[in-house]
Amino acid sequence: MAAGTSPAIMIDAGDHEVRVSNPDRVYFPQLGITKLDLVHYYLAVGDGIVRALRERPCMLHRFPDGLAGEKVHQKRVPNGAPPWLETVRVFFPRYKRQADEVCVTKLADVVWAVQMSTVEFHPWNSRRADTEKPDEWRIDLDPMPDCPFDRVRRVAAVAHEVLDDLGITGYPKTSGGRGLHVYVRIAPEWGFADVRRAALAFAREVERRAPSEVTTAWWRKDRDPAALFVDYNQNARDHTIASAYSVRGVPEATVSTPVDWSEIPSLEPRDFTVRTVPERFAARGDLHARIDEEAFSLAPLLEWADRDEAAGLSAPED
Known about the structure:
Layout: E1 9-13, E2 16-20, E3 26-28, E4 33-34, H1 35-44, H2 46-53, E5 57-62, E6 72-74, E7 87-92, E8 97-103, H3 107-115, E9 118-123, E10 136-143, H4 149-166, E11 171-174, E12 180-185, H5 192-209, E13 214-215, E14 228-230, H6 277-284, H7 299-310
Parallel strand pairs: 13-14
Antiparallel strand pairs: 1-2, 3-4, 5-6, 5-8, 5-9, 7-8, 10-12, 10-14, 11-12
């Protein structure tokens, strides 16, 4: 065994045991959180993280040397993966290449990814049954650099109001940073371009209702630095954001955490970390547990998109 390393251990992850090497390697130096701590965190929120990732192509954000080292964006499953690890093949038109990405179906897949130094999980918004037809619409409330979190809270309330007017149930979560995400299950009947058009139409409606606080300006230079950007482009093909229950690769080890709408007015995103979320999960369960029970139609939003485009509001190219 090399100097400075700790002996490997076996972790029971459901139907499989996963070998975890160097369990004492520190991933978050500021907090002293190790690889084994990260494994235990993901085991504690197992049902939630598997539900968030289930059958989706997933890019892994790996930190082989912890946060002090370089971050690796891993799309392809490396050689030597266990035979029980499932994958899904996706094509990247921009590069005319394809990749076999991790396709989580069980907790052991998550633990294996952590063994491979994964901190963050970034799934597609489509599943392997048809990777070209998303079943998840993502509302990304992304604060510009000078945007206070009070503004994020207020805009979240406006987004909730618009969803209610549409008869759509949205499931909010913290981003693990300064923003909020809202996920909506949709019928997998539209391609990425239409989901993005629908997301832009929704964003513009939120902007109409809160014009002094929200921007949908495509170019960053055109956005008020104190505004909140409703980032509809997160619904474009091959754009991914951290899943529910994903740890974020930041010194505070924050977690992208499902929340109730009622919590948002007093929410402090930095309260949700690797050390606090397991207790919350044990007490409250997965607040996104019912997300797959109903899928909604994008037809009303696509009608809004047609209306906006007829009025001369074009959809910017990705």
